[in-house]
## 1
Amino acid sequence: MALSTPQAVIDRARRLGYTSVGQYSDEVALEDYNIVRSELSNLIMQNVNENYFSEIIRTTWVASQNEYALTDDINNVDVNKIENVRIKYSDDWEYVRATKQNKDNLNKELDYYNENQSESNPFYYVFADSIFIYPAITNEDDLWVEQNVTNWVKLEVSLTPTELIITDTDTLFPREYTHIIALWMLYYIYQRKGLINEANNAQGIYNNAQTELIIALSDRVSVPQEIATPNLDYYE
């Protein structure tokens, strides 16, 4: 069962634990949700692929500006690593792969590269939460006024999911496995009620679900044409 929002997962956890909103508030439940989602996301990155959560971002870039703040386009995630940067300097161009540079190794003033770096051989470097490309993109209209450009810079990035609010749509975590988050939230529900046996049982089911999640996602990454679908009947 695909649960695409924190609210849907929280509602499922409440149903599994026969718990009301009064007993398990949205505030507490959302905190538990984000803890469990983060734990499972880290497990996937450690055991399946460190770049499992990735995204291609096509940006709106300010013409003649070298800097682009990564947080402008990316919500609810942290950028782990920029895998590739591809740029085109005209609407009818193909994307050109930019070369990553270390700013400290550049031996000329940055203005020099805006004037002299070939558009067929751009480069970029990353500093703090921004990416810088050279040469800058220029895009003048018929009146010689610079216009911003959309989709001329394509960033391929690996991400770490960050906390969601209750109404967000989770676009990163594998949607067909979000019910596993509810299983570990069920453990928290039982712990707070003092139901130790039920909590231990929930922990065992969650541990099994974790294992099947990693196996299924590993098969998906290594042999995509032969995805193994775990038996999840006993989690319903």
## 2
Amino acid sequence: MQQEQEISQQQLSLLMRNKEHFHKAFLAQGYWMPESKSQFCTKAWMQEVFFLECWCPKKKEISFMTCLNPPPGRDVSDMICRMIEDKEDWGSDQQQKQFRRMAVHMRRHLPPRDWMLGLLSKMHPDNEIFKKGYHPPKKERAQQVQPTIPNHNGFFDNLPPLSASELRKGNGFKLNLLTKKQRKQQQLARLEEQEQRLTASKAKKQAELDDLEDEEDGIQLRVTKAEFDLIRRAKEAGLDQGRAVAPD
């Protein structure tokens, strides 16, 4: 069995210094990679791919399929993640773990849609989204249930609607005939809607923060050999001076 070759940290520093260099190395090795500036392509994900802890196919392994009407990126991501999480026979135990890790990263950061369509071409080339007549299902926006007002004794029957000029003009007064309970329910519904938006915004900001932390983790202090020798000599001189003045 051929022994795996290794390189030193100094040799590595001559080949790559940042995330972009790492990304280019993957491209040179033929990996099907998302754009380096995408939120999904973090240093943490690439490290897992490098150490064979996370799955990423090579470009030559993919028979790219055409999707004329692709669904939104979030829908494609959910489709792939559900496929990974529901299927139990992705190969060996190591391959199973690699696919699971890919789903974890995709749930955390949304990858570019075109890149995910390449993954789906590899994983499930017969998927319905690659069929000629496929159209993504239309999503109906959830409409807020409007509270109703009782029409006592036909009070509102046969009343003429306001004219366009009356609707435009307004007078700063908004008639509210809701009961106290209905008003509280309406306020609660608005708060729940705001909470959902805040949760989505918080998740997005956390993902951006994680990306910044990944970038900072990849920053390394670099000094020249002359500077390193100067620092080493200064430390040695300090130690020698400390020994000279140390009490018996």
## 3
Amino acid sequence: MHARGKSRAVAAIACVAGALVVSTADAAPPIVKRHVKVVQLAPARTTTVYLAYPDALKLGGTTYSSSIRIESPASGGSGRQPNLRLVKVLSDGPWEGGSLLRVRISNRNPRGTKPLRAVIVAIAREPGPAR
């Protein structure tokens, strides 16, 4: 390849890269909405939690996800400290045609241990407004 041919190839690659940067800059960031629910997890029990997705099924192109966090209780008070390894999320996913999030959590700690907290977040990412 000649020197002139190399410079043309480099210029063509730079044009394509510049066009990609401009097209991604024009895309608006998605709008993220969340609903949060905090529940107590009693020992030796399985709990089912339902949580509505924000603006469920209102817009096409919206993606849905969830986040589940198990928190140990504060130290002090009565009861033994629970073992977090004995807590399992049995299932989580859409329910009622996709408008609700359903989460099943099992706390296999023995009776007499402190209850745990579960923080459940239903997340909807809507496409951003067109520019």
## 4
Amino acid sequence: MIGKIIKTTFWLVVLTPVLLFAYCKYQTIPPKDDWYFDNFSAHQDDFLFLVQELCRSDADIAIRVNREYKPSLGISEPSFVSVQKSLERIGADQVQKIEGCHIKLSIWSIGFAGEGDYKDYTRAPMVHDRVEVSSLDNLYEDYGPITEPSFYMRPIKKEWFITYDVWP
């Protein structure tokens, strides 16, 4: 009886983390490109607002949904609240503004400790080091195993892109 309990406990201790990791790594599927296009069209006013609001400041800015305001963020508290509301309507977890007016809206990610995949909106006046593709929905089927950091994009409108970053 004790041997059976030990075996069962052993398998639970070994298998649970393995199965959890496998689920987290392979079961979550990003929204399809069509969702990103439809969402962008439905919330164009929010995207425009984010550009106008965040690009006023010379500082790099990072704002997460459901976080407290801090004066060190580089924008006023009323602007911070308005930005958070726009992020919620868009469905983004956070926004980052860097290097002038380069904006990244975090929509979907999977992975652990920086290694993972990220499918986001990016506004970039100039895009470097990205492969332009006609679809981001099936990257692994189209390109096979991706073993080095890789950066893909699909244009939406002018300086806006859907981006897919792979950090294996």
